[in-house]
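Researcher: Please predict.
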Amino acid sequence: MRPVAFAAGMEASRHLNSFLDPRRDTRREQDELLRKLLSAHRQTAFGKDHGFDSIDEYKGFASAVPIRDYEQLRPYMQRVFHGEFDALLPPGRKVLMFAQTSGTTGKCKCIPVTRTFLEQMRRGFGMFGLRVLRDHPKGWLRPILQISSPMHESTSPTGLPCGAISGLLAATQRRIVRWMYVVPQMVASIQDPDPRYYTTLRCGIDKNVAVITTANPSSTIKLIETGQRHAERLIRDVADGTINAPGGLPKALAGVLRFRPNRRLARRLSDGIKRDGKLLPKHFWQPAFLTNWTGGTLKLYLPRLRRLFGNVPIRDIGLLASEGRFSLPIEDETPAGLAETVSNFLEFIPVDQAGKDDPEVLRADELEVGSEYSLVVTNWAGLWRYNIDDRVRVTGFHHSTPIFEFLSRGVHTASITGEKITEYQVVESMRVASERAGVGVEQFELQGRFADLPYYELRLEKADGVAPVKIADLMDHALCELNVEYKSKRVSDRLGPVREVVLPAGTMSAAEDAKITSRGGRSDQYKHQYLLTEVLGQA
């Protein structure tokens, strides 16, 4: 397969080398992309409504098109969803599917996926994959375990599939890449998470898996923990060449999956459990690297991931959403990546301008290292000056291209008396508190309460060996260190200390599952909300 792989990698190599070329001029590149977008969309309803015929440069574009959130763009998107494709898309552009968000912040967003948009996404994944394989050549031409979601979870009024774009990307991936996938695509359609994770692990446990790739690191953790809960069943299946997933499998899938008996691996698994007390990835895999999100709130999962996989390198997959790929990490152990300015026209609102009717807006080459911004996107998915509501921090530049990391969703900012704490600060303060207490706290919620002396309520399940009141106290101190306004309000007695509320074990996991089910979301893309912005009344 090496000659085939070499040929398949040539295109990705050209794109990557061009993307990293020090001679790239980000401003010129962005201006050219904007001209192409305006020209291609002049005959759309949106283009006609905003006078694209008379616009060919940024100043006129910014004047004619206001910054919008999805709800303001939804009327156009709904027209596309119901078959009026030229409301937002150039004439003749075929919609392949609608990519949906996970639905964790409200009604699902439906993003039209055309062949052009799909190719842009595939190009980004190609560059990402080639770069990480250059850095970790031991993963070359070895099996890939991908945890993704199905592309067809519902159907649009015109009969098009609606679901995860990751499912479409997997289905249309190059043949050599699909050849390396160890999990059949049908497995993603299993609704119940327990048999889905069990089947995913069963499909890959006897393969020499090089990489586990998914969006949310909690998915990789759940994969291994499912194997630990059902270790005896799993070992028996490996030995006999069978699959007996807990809860059973759909008949269509059960008839497709075939395995060979592997008693040698079964003995190795048994010996590993006897030696280490539980099933661990090292008993069956030697991965070259892991790929998943590592920034924002998801960094809380990394210590647990490390306990399972040891020092296996982790490469963040970048700021990636149903709306597109917006960054490309090129190093391990950091959520920071180069701004994806080839496929997206990007603008940035300084964090102190957020929420203003007419905020200051900066171009990609005008940013300052260390500053935080809200990301505004224009691209081939019919998004025009779309405030994606993601807060990012610029960590550097690669020549003229900014490098930024995801911090949090912009709406996740809470304030009772003007302290304006962000979800990023809340997660970071818990990380510090957990480290100082010597425990791991992954799921919790912080929410403001009005009282004679207002305060933030910390809801968490019991932390082994450490009193929750100590966690709350340590978190309060960490918030003071991270947020000068919070410290000022605490010192001036305008805010009381963080107070703990202990919940029964399993409460948050059950609430998370119920929320995913009720909103039609997907567990692998679900982001737990650690900071709730609505202020509660007196307890």
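Model: Residues 413-536 form a domain with the GMP Synthetase; Chain A, domain 3 fold (CATH 3.30.300).
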